[in-house]
Specification:
α1 runs parallel beside α2, α2 packs parallel to α3 and α3 runs parallel beside α5. Helix content is 26%, strand content 16%. It has one domain: Aldolase class I (TIM Barrel), CATH 3.20.20.70. A hairpin with an 8-residue loop joins β11 and β12. It contains eleven helices and twelve strands. It has a twelve-stranded mixed sheet. It is α/β, with parallel strands linked by helices and 330 residues long.
Length: 330
Amino acid sequence: MTLLVDRFGRRVEYLRISVTDRCNLRCLYCVPPEKVVWRHYDEILSFEEIASVVEAAAQLGVRRIRLTGGEPLLRRDLPELVREIATIPGIEEVSLTTNATRLEDLAEPLARSGLSRVNISLDTLQPDRYARFTRGGAIEPVWRGIAAAERAALLPIKLNAVVVKGLNDDELLDLARLSLERPWHVRFIERMPVGDLGGWDPELPDRGQGYLPVEAMLERLSDLRLEPTNEKSGLGPARVYRVAGALGTIGLISPISENFCSACNRLRLTCDGRLRPCLLAEREVDVREPIRRGEALGPYLQLAANLKPQVHDLAAGRQPGSRWMSQIGG
């Protein structure tokens, strides 16, 4: 088998697929404050087209697929896509990143279709603050979605919190304590400036002052006496810790302060059919038109791998601004 390897010898075996750019929330760091213009339906890859990319990627050694959005649970009949991908030879795992607001009804159908596990975005535990963070969302459906994911054995459940200084950094201890009595993996992520070149809403902390490095997060978590573990966070870049006796773990992800580019093993596929070699770089490879022309996709996947930079653009002082996070898939 010919494997997908980039110019720096990094093997690509993980593909993140955005199935929609639409979302029912409008989180500060993900969706612009102004009116959002969604992609037209004819611009979005069909399930059949997505599956064709996965089949080509699997033939090149890609083993794990993550479905993202926008909010992927807004994509109609998503369990059908999960079932189709899960049966492709070579694919070992299909997982999902979601805000969980629609997970209560879909967890069981997704599990039956072959979904392995879920990552759930949860940036705060306070209902009023959740509404501010998401520009109007309600937190109660999220808790019901988490409970449904547990019942459906979509495990391990990972809770992802993007930390914004002045907005939710005072909740680090409360969020981390979720790992004490539940086998949940709580992960704190440095805020990445993707697309948000302008300001946020005027009543919120200044966007430019919102960054908090993981070392500062660790200081705020010092009362928990975190113990480093040797556990591997799947294929992810998290530094994993555990509180003594806790059922779950705590992870910290540092794309900015301590980038993990040297171990990057992924490509991203946007909902409109662009392979993105790096989240924090503007380069993209169009596969939608080659799919619709009936071309072989292997060369395009290899081209995307060849375009993976040695280190992301933020390290060179360049901020990606052509797409917001919701348009890429995170």
